Known about the structure:
The chain is of the alpha/beta class. It has 11 helices and 12 strands. It has 2 domains: 3-62; 120-128 and 141-176 and 191-427, phage-related protein like fold (Alpha-Beta Complex). Helix content is 38%, strand content 20%. The protein is flat.
Amino acid sequence: MLESVKITRRQSEIRQALAGLVGKEKPTEDEVRSIEAMDLEFRQNETRYRAALICEDTERREAGAELETRSGKEWADLMAGFEMRQVALALDEGASLTGQTAEIVQELRSAGGYRGIPVPWAALEQRNTVSSGTPDPIQTRPIIDRLFPASVASQMGAQMISIDSGAIEWPVTTSAVTAGWAATEGGNVATGAAYATTDRAMKPDHTLGVQMRITRKTLKQSGEALEQAIRRDMAGAMGQEMDKAVFLGTGADGQPLGIIPGAATYGITATAVADVPTYNTFLAEVVAFMAGNLITSPGEIRALMRPELFGLLEGTLNTITQTTEYYRLAFLLAGRGVTGTFPSNISVSSNALAAPAGSPLATSMVMTTATGGVAPIFVGAWGAVDVIRDPFTDAQSGGLRITALATMDLTVARPAQLRILTGLELA
């Protein structure tokens, strides 16, 4: 127990004893001496109490810092013990969940209704182990703070948000508030514009499903083999479809509205190049980002392109610099300090962007930036992944068929943080 707490309790006892003695009209000599002794002790304790608070200040700060981070660390440690193998065996054989897996499932069930067994998003991440003495590549993060590590949407700065229930919206400032000087002494400053916001809402209207067939042989291969296989397959299938929806979602047939088909709806600037792209094509978009006070360095921009566009740029040699057009773009987006041929802020994907089409063949490109710590794209996920068993379809072969359902939506916070280039001709 802290010394200050002990002193506080003793002071309370002294006050209670004094209250009974001072109420007497004719106290005895012993009672008077007792009053004087307790009064002296009370004043001495006040000095000791102040000294104890000073000494305990450092301990209180350290304890407070530990309490602020304890819950996140405990949840991350608990999530590390979740086993997809137990989920598969529970759905197939009716085996009871045990340990940390059972605790997590019980916690998720208390937060929402699920027909099957709820699986947290963090459980779909692939887990790596390294030998001692080497850097640890695993990052501790909240349960649904980001998309899957290999996701293109994650590489482009999209942020995944966990939503318990109902719809959610973010008020984003859209007014052009300006500052101005007073023209004369005592004069008024410039009239300010009204402060206005626009609500960016996400609703649980879109459900993503993954069907997985697990044969009887696979079920008998218990342990890490089945654990990692289920994790990789489910994470890969859902991650691929999520990436495609973020950029190419049609907004119809149950899909959310992606940023490229929904550029006009979200208010994203789309530039029609209609020509073979060069270094100057991308430089103009970088300058537009800087002119809008969104970035201070080109290194803050992330770019996404098709493999065909990468091949064109890498195969085009600039006669002045004697480098490829891709290298010049990479050098620019690395903040003029590229350390390798393929910097991390340029992503190449054949899944997130549509295949080249038209005559001549043309493709698209996306550029994003995170301004003021605000992600350019929000991906909302309602609850956990609901894993449901189908006991009839594969019953004759003794297999297991499970369906994983996830309710998701996406929105764009500030359209100015994204730019789309269309009509990038490849010939």
